Amino acid sequence: MTMKHIINNGNNDTTLLLLHGTGGNEQDMLPLSGLIDNDANVLSVRGNVSEQGMPRFFRRIAEGIFDEEDLVKRTHELNDFITTTAQENNLNRNNVVAVGYSNGANIAASLMYHDKDALHAAILFHPMVPLRNIELPDLTGKKVFIGAGVNDPISPRQETEELAQTLTAAGADVEIFWHQSGHSLTQEEVQHAAEWYKSL
Ligand code: MLT
């Protein structure tokens, strides 16, 4: 299935996969890509699910309670879409770095939970644990940056830590940057993510 998206060709081998939060769209994250890697290719995708008109990447039953069947289905759908789009645009499928916020970070984490080859690395702003009771693939060599707020009511601290521990146990190299704010994306965490990205 196709997904509404924006694609911009850059000057290096990396593709930044931009994934917005609930109610956002494929325009939202574009300024971030310039701050992280102005030379990268950009694939910015709009979630295929609509929650009362708000785009999302998978259905939820309530705030923080995910429709796991839909999440798994949408994860595969997004993964296939990335593969097809990379092929059609001559992008290196093995060098896709996700940059996701909130719901977009959750589907990015789910991509890593399901397929070790889905992402080269990921920047997850305010993610949650996408699902439990799943065996993760071997994520050795994968790098993950998590930006989180100690006062985030949607992604509480223990949830962030559980996600980081689960990814680490699967072999990923995870860095968490904590700030004092809530669920909103801060300039500070974007700057830290951009700094972390240089070490990829
Ligand atoms: C989700 O549903 O993915 C999380 O609650 C975050 C969000 O509201 O987007």
UniProtKB/TrEMBL annotation:
<protein>
    <submittedName>
        <fullName>Carboxylesterase</fullName>
    </submittedName>
</protein>
<dbReference type="InterPro" id="IPR002925">
    <property type="entry name" value="Dienelactn_hydro"/>
</dbReference>
<dbReference type="GO" id="GO:0016787">
    <property type="term" value="F:hydrolase activity"/>
</dbReference>
<dbReference type="Pfam" id="PF01738">
    <property type="entry name" value="DLH"/>
</dbReference>
<dbReference type="InterPro" id="IPR029058">
    <property type="entry name" value="AB_hydrolase_fold"/>
</dbReference>
<feature type="domain" description="Dienelactone hydrolase">
    <location>
        <begin position="73"/>
        <end position="191"/>
    </location>
</feature>
